[in-house]
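The methods section describes the discrete structure representation at length, but only in general terms. An entry of this sort, consisting of the sequence and the corresponding backbone structure tokens, reads as follows:
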Amino acid sequence: MALTKKPVTGMKDILPQEMQIRDYVISQIKETYSSFGFTSIETPVVENLPNLTSKQGGDNEKLIFKIMKRGEKFNLAKATCEEDLADSGLRYDLTVPLVRYYSNHANELPKPFKALQIGPVFRADRPQKGRFRQFYQCDIDILGEAGNLAEIELILATTTLLGKLGFAGFTVHINDRRILKAMAAWSGFPEDSYDQVFITLDKMDKIGPEGVAAELMENGFAKEAVDRYLALFAEMAEQEDAVSYLGEKLADVMEPGTAENLKEIVDSVTATTSTDFNLQFDPTLVRGMSYYTGTIFEIEIAGLGCSAGGGGRYDEMVGKFTNMKTPACGFSIGFERIITILLDQGFQVPGTAAKQAFLVEKNMPADRLCAIMKEAQTLREQGTPVLVSVMNKNKKFQKEQLAAQGYTEFREFYINPMR
């Protein structure tokens, strides 16, 4: 079979210019999040298959890269189902591995535990612009904190990071799954149909209230329930404080304290932050993952056309591993999308030391080459990055390539110093 120089479909090679930006963003992530008390951890990219197919990952479970059993465990002749052939898979996000990690090491970790995790995830998705089968995620999570201090810290840390990367005027949409359920219950939708209702509601920004109403009716829901549901959104649009309005109107079907909790998060973040962004209650925000149990949030950057991050509270997930209820909440930034924006903006890594390139004529005598190398080493010890490279025949093109990598000063060394 012929070798191919292109990467596997849905994967990509990363060139030096982008890698420099990625390294810088990761350094800012670690520096910012550590200042909020988050601790870096690492989990394997391979997880046991039952963990990945536990109905906690939503549609992502349909996109798992499964790994065949090895050696004696792999017996194609006796296989009767997929489980006989595969026992593990590549992780599709960082949350399931984190929960397994915490469940395994809870006795060794502080409580609450503030985790930072950065790493590649894999989804057998259809590749398209900005969407790959291997991509990086960056998550911060707080496990063991039942109060809304977790949400407040997560939002502040994430928005502080985005501000340091030069983003301003963006919006963090916030909602609560308990508010979503209370609105559906008050409208008269059957409890076992809430997820179907929310899937349609999630399209509100694309198809509008009329489109949502039409789709709900097409799915067989009663017109009375649909009308009551859409009327709630119309009424909220006229309220100065929509959260308090819902808290009063839906008091009989909403979990006590839900509206007050959400208001406290919004007020605390707004009063504390020094970053230029908007924190906005969004009753149409759903978030697709089925494991969310409370507060949910999502980042919108103008002109991006898609979410730049999101997260929420998932208080029941750890208990599926340990049989002990453990509160948990997390926020993930869209690492790849942020990198794409910075590249499109022509972002330059700030504070980078001026880089020099020493271009040495081919076959330079050993004593002269040693002197050149010693000079380069002295500059490096003084903090100046120096590349020593043999001079190409097409010197102009060589310099253009190095300039694209950030080299700003060039020195040429010839066998005959008089050249």
In short: The radius of gyration is 27 Å.
